Amino acid sequence: MLGRMLVLVAALVAGGVGAQEYYGDLRPDAPELAARGALQVGVRTLVAENKDQLDILRYSAEQPNPRYTRKLTLEVWYPARLAEGQKEHTVYSDVLGSGPNDPKRPNTPFQFNGRAARDAAPLLPAQQAAQAASRPGAAGANGAVPAQAAAAPSGRYPLVIVSHGYPGSRLQMSYLTENLASKGYVVVAIDHPESTRADKAGFASTLLNRRLDDLFVLNTVAGWAKPGSGNFLAGVVDADNTALIGYSMGGYGALNTVGAGVGAAAAAFVPGGKLAINQQGNQEYETARDPRIKAVVAFAPWGANYKVWDDAGLAGVRTPTLFITGDQDDVAGYKEGVLQIFQKTVNANRYLLTYIGGRHNSAPNPPSPAHYSNADDFQSYSEPVWDSRRINNINQHFVTAFLGVELKQQPLQGYLQLTPQSNDEWKGFSKRNAVGLEWRHLPPQ
Comparing C-alpha atoms, which of 210, 284, 206 is closest to residue 244? Predict the structure, then answer.
């Protein structure tokens, strides 16, 4: 049996990228809203530089305010208008490993396929109806379905900012980012410096900079969206109608961005008291709440199990939030972790989807065949009980419903008004397929 498995793995690796699937495609048992939307998808890689930032990793008593430029690589997915002969296909390049200079898990490059056209022209919101109509039924090879009000009421596409874990990358949730773009969102995923698998460095940078990076990207995209900006997103994206999606430390950062000020216990994690800029009770922090952010999706958000927040800090969140995690999460914690955050964000309308038997990897793509050569690399993407492709489809379904309600005012509330136990009673799931899941909803107090 072991020999047969090794042969299979060798065949997959030898087959290269061409032998791989497109992550995010539908399993036969995928819930209803997981299906790809009717719009074609483009993707571009951009860079934004945030100058004169505190370089916390060079902080010392002798040098208490070192400065540097944070260079953020961004992957941008968007509704696209493909040229003749252009196809929704790209190849993403990422790296394995736990960070640089780790001989047990070196930064080994790998590639995987994506359903997006590299550098395609954007589809202007006014053109979306014609494109959707030209793809009738659209339940073809890539599972497309007609878009529901692809643009927001503003007439432009809502913005979704995606923040990875520590370490991670801007590409680790491509199954979701491509899917959302096909439904009429502009999705911008960040490579957070000093926090990717390629450049992982001190944890203090991640704690300090996630909120600052999120807001910088929001402001940057808002500038690109202005008519005459010269950017391809000019007149396309509505930055006043934004959601944050964060996984693990990205979830921590998203919550910190929308009002979950860290507590005093967290200050010790960053030298020189520099985390005060993100601390509950700091007036500068309290007045930095950004009304353009209308929703948060927090996958396995880290922090509560390390007492990063007190009750007053979590009460600062007023933004509608969808939490997604596993009840066996051994990184962010469940009962003392994500469940505590869900229960104590008392001023927000919030939902919690729990994968029974799931651990921490509720957000990423499935492992690539390249991950099979190292058990730790494999486990950094995989789940021991759940099939990652099944998780991906369920995430697509619920994120589509939640963002549709919060950013587009679509009539999708029925997909969020569910019984606590799935038991084949959940809207959008076929018979015998809504199992292994729990759902909670708490309104703001």
Answer: 210
Shortest CA distance to 50 belongs to which of 65, 68, 75? 68
User: Measured between alpha carbons, how far is 300 from 297 in angstroms, rounded to an integer?
Assistant: 10
Q: Where are the alpha helices (DSSP H) in 121-190?
A: 128-133, 174-181
Cα 89-27-76 angle, rounded to 5 deg: 35
H-run or E-run covering 396: helix 388-408
Per-domain residue ranges of the chain: 2-442
Is it true that domain 2-442 has CATH number 2.40.420.20?
Answer: no
CA-atom Rg of the chain in angstroms: 21
DSSP character at residue 256: H
Q: Tokens 């040098």 label which residue? A: 63
Q: How confident is the model at residue 20 (pLDDT cuts 50, 70, 90)?
A: low
Q: Tell me the pLDDT tens digit for each residue of 155-193.
A: 899 999 999 999 999 999 999 999 999 999 999 999 999
Long-range CB contact pairs, 86-92, < 8 A, 24+:
86/117, 86/120, 87/117, 88/40, 88/41, 88/115, 88/116, 88/117, 88/142, 89/113, 89/114, 89/115, 89/116, 89/117, 90/43, 90/114, 90/116, 90/117, 90/118, 91/17, 92/171, 92/174
User: pLDDT for 373-402, tens place per residue?
Assistant: 999 999 999 999 999 999 999 999 999 999
Q: Helix, strand, coil proportions of the chain in percent (round to 5)? A: 30, 20, 45
